[in-house]
Structure formats: structure tokens, C-alpha cells
């Protein structure tokens, strides 16, 4: 997806909110956007999601399935939470049964299952936001746009949304997000931009830690038969991931389908499933391998280790 010379203003004599925006958003990328209050972040995200149109310039390559979550979700609808999600699933082309199943799964995942039959207008702000997040993930969007989507969620739902973002990028979707918490998904974004004076610029990233210490080797994190792209060549299944001492590592808690064979070097996790530890640079490839395996693995958590 690409934005070329994109600008937006609300009236011919009004100042430009955005001007000359040019950026490429590749598949599988996690993109963070920052900027001051009133600086145009929400306007940019609405343009990316296709909710608004640019005054000038063009946007091309938007995936056919796009999902958007605003900071405040308008919940004044004459439907229950489950009926609303099921209806949206049908709009996305799912069968009625599949839409209802995904609606129930989404509410359960974000801790809102007990509100399935509650009218949307009667939901609290936090529960409405959980429904908003669930609707965004209903049909496996190729583009997920999150505008302060974590606001109003409890700690458990925020962590679940973090996991969902990681799952979507690992599956090849593009995720663009704004959040007031600078630690949100820290260390994971592939690109980091800042809006300044109606223009978009690359934000400075802190340098990666370096160490002259010897290398340490962590166990493999690749399910049998799932190719992962290592640094020295494509399509080669890894037997071990080499992580420089002091460099970032990621621990993945995954649960395999019934009868699945645990990856070589995996450790049993308390409560079921396995722990996989890999260098941060390989985590996307590993997650993609787990999620696209047939049958696929379920990712319970992804956390960055010191």
C-alpha cells in the first residue's frame, strides 16, 4: 500500500492538516505513528483506512479487507453485541454460522462474552471498545488501523490486543497504530513515523544494543516442516537460532493442534503448550510459520525478554 503526495484539509480556505505525505506500507509491517495532540494523527489513520478521502494525492494498494478501531467507538446501535458482530461478519462474506462463531470467539477472547446479549447502547465504554476490537479482527483483515484502540481496555484486553497485532503481522497483514503509551509494542514496529507541521517524517529509533561478548545459542523455535527464513538464505528450516549476548530475544507461548509434534528444543509451558525463545529479529518469521502451518498453532502470548 502506498500514499503519494497525500494532503487533507477541511475546506478550501482552511489550513492543511496533512500535506505531501508519501509513505509505503508493505505487507506484514507494523507501523507506529506519533505526533502532538491535534497534529493530524487521526486524520492520517482515517485516510489509510479508507474512511476519509484525501484532498490531494492518491492512495493505492489498500488491501480488500480493512479494519479500523477508533479511540471512541459509537455504540448507539439497535443491536446486541453478538448480533452486531454477526451482522458485520456477514457483511464481510462469512456464512451466518461462521460469523456467529467468530463473534462468540471474539467476545470471549477480549473478556466480553457475558455481554453478548446486551444491547450495544447499554455497554460501558470499556466493553464497547472490546466489541470494537473484536469486530476489527472478525474477518482476518489485510490492513488493521488502530487509533488509540487500547484506550478504555482493561489490562487483560490490552495484552490480548497486543497479541492480536503480532498475529496479524505474522500472517502478512499491515498494522498501523497510534497509542499514547510510548511502551506500547516497544521494540516490535518495523517503521516509526512522527507527524510534524502537517508532514510525516521518520522518527529516530534508539540504537540497538551491541556487545562484543561471545554468542549464545537458544533452542530452535521452528515447528517440524515449517520453513523459516534465516539470515544466511531463504527457505532453510532452522536447527538453532543464534542470539548475540545482550541482544533482544522474544519468548512465544504457543499451543499446537491435537497430535502435533513440539518443535525441537521447545520447553513445556505451565498450563499447557510450549515456550519458544528466539532472537527478536526472527520472531516474525517464527510466528508466521506457526500461524500458517496446517493445522495452525495458537499463539497465547509474545513477550520481549531482557
Folded structure, characterized:
With 306 residues, this protein is an alpha/beta fold. It folds into two domains: 154 residues, P-loop containing nucleotide triphosphate hydrolases (Rossmann fold); 91 residues, no CATH class. It has six helices and 15 strands. The strands form four sheets. Strands 5-6-7-3-8-9 form a six-stranded mixed beta sheet, sandwiched between helices. Helix 2 packs parallel to helix 4. It is globular, with a radius of gyration of 21 Å. It starts with a strand and ends with a strand.
Please summarize what this structure is.
This is ATP-binding cassette domain-containing protein. The chain is 24% helix and 26% strand.
What is the CATH topology of the largest domain? Answer: Rossmann fold
The low-confidence parts are: 206-243
Please identify which CATH superfamily of the largest domain we are dealing with.
Answer: P-loop containing nucleotide triphosphate hydrolases
Mean pLDDT: 81
Count of distinct structural domains:
2
Distance between the termini: 34 Å
What general outline do the C-alpha atoms trace? globular
State the helicity in percent bands: 10-25%
Number of helices: 6
Radius of gyration: 21 Å
Strand order of the largest sheet: 5-6-7-3-8-9
Q: Roughly what fraction of the amino acids lie in strands?
A: 25-35%
Amino acid at each position: 500500500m502506498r500514499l503519494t503526495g497525500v494532503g487533507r484539509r477541511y475546506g478550501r480556505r482552511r489550513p492543511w492538516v496533512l500535506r505531501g505525505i508519501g509513505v509505503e506500507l508493505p505487507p506484514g509491517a507494523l507501523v507506529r505513528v506519533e505526533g502532538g495532540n491535534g497534529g493530524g494523527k487521526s486524520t492520517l489513520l482515517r485516510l489509510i483506512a479508507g474512511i476519509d478521502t484525501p484532498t490531494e494525492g492518491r492512495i493505492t494498494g489498500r488491501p480488500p479487507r480493512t479494519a479500523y478501531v477508533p479511540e471512541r467507538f459509537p455504540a448507539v446501535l439497535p443491536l446486541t453485541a453478538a448480533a452486531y458482530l454477526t451482522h458485520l461478519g456477514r457483511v464481510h462474506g462469512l456464512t451466518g454460522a461462521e460469523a456467529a462463531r467468530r463473534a462468540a470467539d471474539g467476545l470471549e477472547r477480549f473478556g466480553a462474552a457475558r455481554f453478548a446479549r446486551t444491547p450495544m447502547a447499554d455497554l460501558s465504554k470499556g466493553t464497547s471498545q472490546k466489541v470494537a476490537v473484536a469486530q476489527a479482527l472478525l474477518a482476518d483483515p489485510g490492513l488493521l488501523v488502530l487509533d488509540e484502540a487500547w484506550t478504555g481496555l482493561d489490562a487483560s484486553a490490552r495484552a490480548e490486543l497486543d497479541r492480536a497485532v503480532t498475529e496479524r503481522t505474522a500472517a502478512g497483514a499491515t498494522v498501523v497504530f497510534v497509542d499514547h503509551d510510548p511502551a506500547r509494542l516497544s521494540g516490535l514496529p518495523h517503521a516509526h513515523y512522527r507527524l510534524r507541521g502537517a508532514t510525516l517524517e521518520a522518527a529516530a529509533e534508539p540504537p540497538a544494543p551491541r556487545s562484543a561478548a561471545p554468542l549464545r545459542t537458544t533452542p530452535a523455535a521452528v515447528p517440524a516442516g515449517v520453513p523459516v527464513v534465516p539470515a544466511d538464505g531463504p527457505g532453510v528450516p532452522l536447527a538453532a537460532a543464534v542470539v548475540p549476548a545482550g541482544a533482544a530475544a522474544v519468548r512465544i507461548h504457543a499451543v499446537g493442534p491435537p497430535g502435533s509434534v513440539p518443535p525441537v528444543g521447545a520447553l513445556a509451558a505451565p498450563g499447557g503448550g510450549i515456550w519458544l525463545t528466539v532472537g527478536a529479529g526472527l520472531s516474525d518469521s517464527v510466528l508466521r510459520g506457526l500461524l500458517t502451518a496446517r493445522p495452525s498453532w495458537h499463539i497465547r502470548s509474545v513477550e520481549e525478554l531482557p
